[in-house]
Amino acid sequence: MKHVLVLAAMLITSTIVAVGNVILAKLTGFDFFGLTFWFIIPAGAILAGMAAAGGGILAARLLNHGLTKIDAFMMVGVSAATMVLYYYLDYYTLVLDDGRRARDLIGFWDYMDLVLTSSHLRIGRGARDIGQVGAMGYWLAGLEFIGFMAGGFSAFALAARMPRCTDCGAYLRKLKSRKTEELTREEAEAMIDQFNNGDVAEVAEVLRWKPPERTFAKQDKRAVITHELQGCPKCMREQLKSSINVFNGEEWKEIEALESRRDLVPGLSFRQHFE
Ligand SMILES: [Zn+2]
Fold first, then answer.
1. Cα(177) to centroid of ligand 1, in Å?
2. Which of 19, 136, 265, 271 has the fewest Cβ atoms within 10 Å of its own Cβ atom?
3. Buried b vs exposed e over 128-159: b needs ≥16 C-beta within 10 Å?
4. How many whole angstroms separate alpha carbon 46 and alpha carbon 255?
């Protein structure tokens, strides 16, 4: 049943995305779905594909449904279908200059053939028209199609990474969060070690710990740790997350490999440690 609701939610977002692109293209002449970077990265299709499958993520969160392989297939499929739906709507609503409707004159697939091979490729900032794309149109359409599927799969991968309760599987919600002041590398390492390996009292201590007053020079290497308290909306079990941002002298970067989580025992709340 939950799969059906996930699918239904995706059909809604998919339709919104396709209709949105039809309106955008008719009003401005710009086809967002066809937006490509460096000829090989179908950025518009990837983003549109993600948005089209986005309803699935929303539904999964609302229903506390952990996405499975079936959902992955549905997300990829619905994203791909969004592209076809767009072309179909474009065809269905197309009225020629002389007032005749395209759908009265030609079948959908013949229309597709015509559109794909006779669209004009525009290149560069001045959008210089370099002529009809011909057979290359199929290649571009194939690329767009792959982009949509990649977008659908990205949406699935994104949702599959969202943290869930170890007990009941519900998606966790952020309750509180706090950033440390700027730390030296040694301090950051010690805090992460204690967070990962300490007992409950030691973890609470990590959350409260403050470095001594001082100022770093502009180029000094330093780190900031973010602690986040997440909670299960169903069984209320809490989980702590620690993530670290490091300044290497030039820029700040999040070090994902050092991100870690601690499950708290059921019934124990760490809210007061974030006050
Ligand atoms: Zn739970």
1. 19
2. 265
3. eeeeebeeebeebbebbbebbbbbbbbbbeeb
4. 26
* Assigned domain for 16 exists: yes
Q: 210 and 156, same structural domain?
A: no
Residue 177 lies in a domain: yes
- How much distance in Å is there from the Cα of 53 to the middle of ligand 1? 26
Instruction: Clarify whether residues 46 and 147 are in a common domain.
Output: yes
Tell me: the pLDDT tens digits for 167-203?
988 999 999 999 999 999 999 999 999 999 999 999 9
CA of 227 relative to ligand 1 center, distance in Å: 20
What range does the domain containing 188 cover? 173-274
Q: pLDDT (tens digit, 9 = 90+) per residue, 232-273? A: 999 999 999 999 999 998 999 999 999 999 999 999 999 999
Residues 33 and 89 in one domain: yes
First to last CA, the chain: 41
Identify whether residues 225 and 101 lie together within a single domain: no
Residues within 5 A (CB) of ion ligand 1: 165, 167-168, 170, 232, 234-235, 237
Asked which of 160, 195, 221 is the last residue of a domain, the reply is 160
Distance 2 CA to ligand 1 centre (A): 18
Q: Domain total for the chain? A: 2
- What's the gap in Å between 159 CA and the centre of ligand 1? 17
Distance 147 CA to ligand 1 centre (A): 36
Ligand 1 center from residue 1 Cα (angstroms): 21
DSSP 3: H
* Alpha-carbon distances, residue 6 vs 10, 30, 63, 67, 168 (angstroms): 6, 31, 9, 9, 19
Specify whether 152 is located in the same domain as 206: no
- Domain membership of residue 168 (yes or no) is no
Q: Tell whether pTM > 0.85.
A: no
Say how many Å lie between the CA of residue 244 and the centre of ligand 1: 26
